[in-house]
Fold this protein.
Amino acid sequence: MDIKSANEIIQHAINLCISRRLVEPESTILISIEAQLDFLKAIISGKLSDNGGLNNIIVGQYALREFEPGDMEFANVLYEVEEIVDLVKRRRLIL
């Protein structure tokens, strides 16, 4: 996976999150997911350095606990984001 693909997946996840927040604006889970996605996007784009923050991204856990099986579109994109986090942590996606 390259940076462009990672950014597209992250942006897609952000867009899906925003659309769900329109229905549930006070959802603490969606607020947390959006913040995590924004943080990851900033890291991927080089605007922030990691400093261990990648370990706090738990969108895959939210996907499993909160969105499967009722919202598989969102769950699947969150799993893709979790894979990006893993690639960055293992330095297989070079920033």
User: Anything to note?
Assistant: Helices lie at 3-23, 28-44, 59-67, 72-89. The radius of gyration is 13 Å. The chain has a mean pLDDT of 93.
